[in-house]
């Protein structure tokens, strides 16, 4: 590798600063050439006397700049580093958040002054950082994918004041700070904009034209988003331009760019629980049995009883009736309230009817159960359901509420659907899914059409110990209790 | 008396806020006083974020007045398990929020008012703001013994803290906010701010407990509204602007585009709990089972609010080793959150041998583990 030396010669020509240096070459044999490089804005002149040359290392292709921790104010000299938003090797853009530091009740977001790649973090979390000392080392982008005899860019050392034109990306992008800010606010890379000014300088009109071409309309500048990076940068186009796009009649044919990315995350928590349960459920040979229930009479009954329950402070839905009817049915067909052991050697007939109710919460599916339904009144069941529902939505259900279930009902109908194919929750042997109540025309005994409140039920049972006939008879019994609620009175204990 | 803003002024504000880029070429003086119409802590914190991110404060300053329904607000780098009684919060339905500024934990309710002073980064000056508040209080009730300390607290009668401070600095703008205790529920305050969790080792910013007093106790004629108004008036005088408070609805996307996303983000588990700096829990508890008392030792490392490493020391064979390793495996990687762990452990019960003795032991152990969260 040819040794790198840098010649420096600087002179001012009508407000410009030009530097010549030798160029690094990748093979030892090539000639070293020198070229003119980089043009600075006038404001750089003030610091020209501070200019130093950076000796480029043989390995990297960019300049490593030490980004120092700038003054926090109020005479503070040291802060604690609390969180890094980037790690070594990440690429950053100017104004991206780098880290969060804290000093005496003030939390400060440090943003990058450069575009480049993070090469070194000078502190760990909880270390004390000092104002004026280096915080990170950033490798400034040099040109990309161009011939090895490319010029090496020299960057003057930064002062405390902000410049908006710090790095030159290997090709000349002339633009005033105001124009650069406009480009930045609209997430436009200056390298993609065609400059129409002198020496291909990019003017404000060029940015606006570029924007117009992109969307077919002049956009209002989107608000600066200085949001902390852990949020995915999925700021979609704000609603206003979409509306405007709809009003514009002429469709602009442009390639459809979809910038969405796949997201992989580990399965944890609620989902992990579901995976375990359903994997175990797979081992159970399911069979299904479905039917249609005429709830016309029950609907009427509930309307009458709702205010009575309200007075006692309980919200009465249909579920307490479904649950109580199921328990009455289980008294006749106890095998549906049983459990088969691991080796399928023994069937345990459970004495308590602990009927589970599938609940949909923000986090996912949970199944708390109402204990001992066989000795509860419909009102008591309703009251217990209320308690479980409020705990469930607050995320405060206890282990006792979530264990010990022997039979489950899932009222998927509150969300929608008619027939379903529910999955049995081990160690139970049966489950019922209730569809939504629909008003449908049906024929009565006299052959007349009347308005009926119809609900569908879909049962699944473990075919190792439950046969179709048992399931059908249980379902018929349950159905008869609900279609004629007065008959429940006969069998209530 | 708080002046209601006229529709015209709302529109004026919305014009100003909708074109932050234009800068504020307003002919009146730069400063603005706004008050939130909401008592939701997340919405109000979102307004702070929004102003910090989107308003051009180069030539203007903003005072934001807000109050919250009961909530506990922890600082950016704090550990909620260390700072407050999370069980009690959940029981009483008190919200937990994490703000973006530093500092310690505070209890908010409608008797505690919040003031946020927005300035450019260069004009960030906490002492001045607090002196303004003290001046306003003295103008309202000259006999009040209130003063600012060098820790940026405001003390009443030299002992009692009535205001705490925190700040957030960004690239171009900054804000300093503080509370002011007018008539908060001190009983709830002291009970929620006491953490029952033992054995937590962490580098999170700890809060410094202090004795507090309500201004109402000193002078029962004071109300939160009076204090807000007095401070607004003092601010208006010092910044040479109209004493005019503009009302802001933190749910209004037309005035504050993008605000609802900010509100949502502040409510996510990942922000409130997940942003807790790494910590470890090293504790033990006694379990009473049948006629014996068992000692259980637990060690956990929690990072980003999730259990990274978990170790449970049980008496030998109290639970079959397969089951205890299954428990540890499930806990690892899960959120350090009672709801999630409860769901997990109760589900695991479905797929293990249906032995009543075994299951009651499992339940007992899990319930005790969940109490740690």
From TrEMBL, chain A:
<dbReference type="InterPro" id="IPR011053">
    <property type="entry name" value="Single_hybrid_motif"/>
</dbReference>
<dbReference type="InterPro" id="IPR000089">
    <property type="entry name" value="Biotin_lipoyl"/>
</dbReference>
<dbReference type="GO" id="GO:0031405">
    <property type="term" value="F:lipoic acid binding"/>
</dbReference>
<keyword id="KW-0012">Acyltransferase</keyword>
<comment type="function">
    <text>The branched-chain alpha-keto dehydrogenase complex catalyzes the overall conversion of alpha-keto acids to acyl-CoA and CO(2). It contains multiple copies of three enzymatic components: branched-chain alpha-keto acid decarboxylase (E1), lipoamide acyltransferase (E2) and lipoamide dehydrogenase (E3). Within this complex, the catalytic function of this enzyme is to accept, and to transfer to coenzyme A, acyl groups that are generated by the branched-chain alpha-keto acid decarboxylase component.</text>
</comment>
<keyword id="KW-0597">Phosphoprotein</keyword>
<keyword id="KW-0007">Acetylation</keyword>
<dbReference type="InterPro" id="IPR050743">
    <property type="entry name" value="2-oxoacid_DH_E2_comp"/>
</dbReference>
<dbReference type="Pfam" id="PF02817">
    <property type="entry name" value="E3_binding"/>
</dbReference>
<protein>
    <recommendedName>
        <fullName>Dihydrolipoamide acetyltransferase component of pyruvate dehydrogenase complex</fullName>
        <ecNumber>2.3.1.-</ecNumber>
    </recommendedName>
</protein>
<dbReference type="InterPro" id="IPR004167">
    <property type="entry name" value="PSBD"/>
</dbReference>
<keyword id="KW-0496">Mitochondrion</keyword>
<dbReference type="Pfam" id="PF00364">
    <property type="entry name" value="Biotin_lipoyl"/>
</dbReference>
<comment type="similarity">
    <text>Belongs to the 2-oxoacid dehydrogenase family.</text>
</comment>
<dbReference type="Pfam" id="PF00198">
    <property type="entry name" value="2-oxoacid_dh"/>
</dbReference>
<feature type="domain" description="Lipoyl-binding">
    <location>
        <begin position="64"/>
        <end position="139"/>
    </location>
</feature>
<dbReference type="InterPro" id="IPR023213">
    <property type="entry name" value="CAT-like_dom_sf"/>
</dbReference>
<dbReference type="GO" id="GO:0005759">
    <property type="term" value="C:mitochondrial matrix"/>
</dbReference>
<dbReference type="GO" id="GO:0005829">
    <property type="term" value="C:cytosol"/>
</dbReference>
<keyword id="KW-0808">Transferase</keyword>
<keyword id="KW-0809">Transit peptide</keyword>
<feature type="region of interest" description="Disordered">
    <location>
        <begin position="223"/>
        <end position="244"/>
    </location>
</feature>
TrEMBL record, chain B:
<dbReference type="GO" id="GO:0009249">
    <property type="term" value="P:protein lipoylation"/>
</dbReference>
<keyword id="KW-0808">Transferase</keyword>
<protein>
    <recommendedName>
        <fullName>Lipoyl amidotransferase LIPT1, mitochondrial</fullName>
        <ecNumber>2.3.1.200</ecNumber>
    </recommendedName>
</protein>
<feature type="domain" description="BPL/LPL catalytic">
    <location>
        <begin position="57"/>
        <end position="243"/>
    </location>
</feature>
<keyword id="KW-0809">Transit peptide</keyword>
<dbReference type="GO" id="GO:0005739">
    <property type="term" value="C:mitochondrion"/>
</dbReference>
<comment type="pathway">
    <text>Protein modification; protein lipoylation via exogenous pathway; protein N(6)-(lipoyl)lysine from lipoate: step 2/2.</text>
</comment>
<keyword id="KW-0012">Acyltransferase</keyword>
<dbReference type="InterPro" id="IPR004562">
    <property type="entry name" value="LipoylTrfase_LipoateP_Ligase"/>
</dbReference>
<dbReference type="GO" id="GO:0017118">
    <property type="term" value="F:lipoyltransferase activity"/>
</dbReference>
<dbReference type="InterPro" id="IPR045864">
    <property type="entry name" value="aa-tRNA-synth_II/BPL/LPL"/>
</dbReference>
<keyword id="KW-0496">Mitochondrion</keyword>
<comment type="similarity">
    <text>Belongs to the LplA family.</text>
</comment>
<dbReference type="Pfam" id="PF21948">
    <property type="entry name" value="LplA-B_cat"/>
</dbReference>
<comment type="function">
    <text>Lipoyl amidotransferase that catalyzes the transfer of lipoyl moieties from lipoyl-protein H of the glycine cleavage system (lipoyl-GCSH) to E2 subunits of the pyruvate dehydrogenase complex (PDCE2). Unable to catalyze the transfer of octanoyl from octanoyl-GCSH to PDCE2. In vitro, it is also able to catalyze the transfer of the lipoyl group from lipoyl-AMP to the specific lysine residue of lipoyl domains of lipoate-dependent enzymes but this reaction may not be physiologically relevant.</text>
</comment>
<dbReference type="InterPro" id="IPR004143">
    <property type="entry name" value="BPL_LPL_catalytic"/>
</dbReference>
